Fold each of these.
Amino acid sequence: MTGIVIVGASLAGLRAAEHLREEGFDGSLTLIGDEPHEPYDRPPLSKQVLLGRVLPEDTALPRRREVDAEWRLGVAAAGLDRDRRRVQLADGSEVAYDKLLIATGVRSRPWPNDSEAALDGVCVLRTSDDTRHLERLLARRPNRVLIIGAGFTGSEIASACRERGFAVTVAERGETPLVGALGGVVGDVAARLQREHGVDLRCGVMVTSLEGDPAGRLKRAHLSDGSVLDADIAVVALGAVRNTAWLDGSGLAAGPRGVACDAGCRAFDVHGIVTDDVFAAGDVARTPHPLFGYQFLSLEHWGNAVAQAEIAAHNMISPDSRRLPHLWTPSFWSSQFGVNIKSVGAPSMGEEIVVTQGSLTDHSFAAAYGYQGRVIAAVGFDHGKWMGGYRRLIERAAAFPPELPGTRGVRPVPARFPDPALPSHGPTVTLTGHSPSDKRVVFTPSRA
């Protein structure tokens, strides 16, 4: 083998490249990225950067070692010819590979009406350039910022804007913020937090249209309950779209849910046959996990991107007998409205929830989620130091509710997740046993 190509020059792509070199790969290495920037850290964009504590240019990812690679930045992958082993680029050129790693991640789900999305004042927040755009809008000192969607990104943006003194309205079609990710019980706590910090939170409503003035600037939003809201800025936080469109026609099992892979990160083709020269890692990958019934997991988690990239890199250059499975336990964190939120496992799979430490009313607690009689996940509000213990409960399939000090007599309650059959922008863990290329499924854009 002489050449490896990595499509996706962000966290997973960079860490995979570094790990290839660490394990002794000395062939040619090419990284392709659609952004002109070298790899940078995305989580701070909706937190420290938006608060002005860190500049966008200071979010560059630290390099573990020199990767000695050819960087093709600012040009997107446009197609994949697996027969010829060529990645086709948007500028018309091609890059040959012996083995390919797909690490193209996700992009923000856009506002579905193109003309409304083009209004001055309407934006998303995913990239470094998005952050700079939003900062320019906020520099105008808007009268009101509308956040469309109360998942983690929307809630973090709302928190930062309130801390900076802006009037904020959050419109969320679910019953509470974070309901898709953590369920309604925990979502009720998130709702109280937002309202206590001055957010005009409106749940159970959708933004039906955005209206501009004659100059093309956003001036108001129309909501499904018939109300009209004046706003100068609308941040669309409707979740993410996996970057797989460039793989159309490639014969890979790639679609809206990501690239389906085996536990060793090898991509499946549309017939369910595993490939041996195409791998996937990071937000774009879907892999089976024994802790979750071998259903496919799509994880939009920083730690998963690193761990999976290293497994993929190892397996790309290792014989069958030395290949490893990717068995990372999901884990993520968020900081909003003065509270640090951490979670392990797959909360969105939970049927019931029980508070095991602290109090929901005090916004300081730990809670465990149960699925079919076992602990499947946990979440902590300012209780992050305990998540390691809950991780061990999850990994040994401990019985639910867990027997912990102080939990005697505490009864689980329904976790109140929305119907999984309905579209949602909230979860950071998506579990599905369906093929992403199943043409019987019709995916339609939705509004919140």
Note: The chain is about 20% helix and 30% strand.
Amino acid sequence: MKKVNLLFWVIVSLTLSSCSRYGYVHLNYPQAPAAYLPEGVDDLAVVNRSLTPKENQQTKVIESIMTGEVAGSDRLASDEAIKGVYDGIHAADGVHILIPKNLRLDGTGTRETPAPLGWEHVVAICDSTGADALLVLETFDSNSDLLLQTAAGQIGSILTTGKPGIRVPRRARVDVRCYWRLYDPRTKTIADQFQQSHYLSFNLLSPIPPFQALSETAYAAGHEYIRRFLPSYYSVRRELYKKGKGRDKHQFNTGWRRSEVANWEGAIDAWMPLASNPTSQLAGQAALNIAVAHEVLGDTDRALEWAQRAYEDYGDKLARDYAKTLLRRKNIER
């Protein structure tokens, strides 16, 4: 499976406690994607198959009235979901989204999931665009809870006062439900199938939701779906040494002070002679600090090398667990 290489900005903060021998740096740590694109997929075609066939238009208009949709709005908003996909991953780590000339295909026009496309059709679309795989928005449906809120308010008013109320809800929630399929024409397999429900809430200045409410919700749904194939991040804390002892403590402490002002290259320069000197009492601690500095700078390979060195050559206990953590990180980044 294709794994996305990680480019990330590090958020750094260091503790200022003067009594501890340890300092801490906080940085963003990658979390594996929820799903992976098939191996070798660099160009991905996307089509919209959620549209209502002409013979079902009358049924759709009736449904629109009953659910609070604007007639025909799903036809327009479903394309916004495609745009959300495009903006969410296009050119991320070399992945390019391709939009075929015939973007729209007829589907059920409801939440009923259609049968998968035939492989001849999938191959034809991929060949026409030069794509490696095909992503299809199979279904798209929207609803607003405005009518439900209004009806509940009217019923409550009648039960309380005996009269219909005139109060209009201050907020409305717009929901979209999508069903996505990712077709891999080379292996003739469906690499991903995902039923999605996404909503946004909007302030009401009038009795109807803002004009852009549905399109914004649809765009956000498409963006959210495609981000499943990219890693997310959470904050982690890395421990390093901030106080040295012995004849080399001044140079060691210089490296720490440089790290406090985010001068990590300068900190490495200060710690490198100590880590390379097996007679230094601070060699293992300096090597551990250099490992952390390299991770902060985004070089996991160098960080792992120095963490292993800190434990294997000098027996630093912090470095043992840290090296295992970096190995897990490398597995995500591959």
Note: The domain at 241-333 is CATH 1.25.40.10 (Serine Threonine Protein Phosphatase 5, Tetratricopeptide repeat).
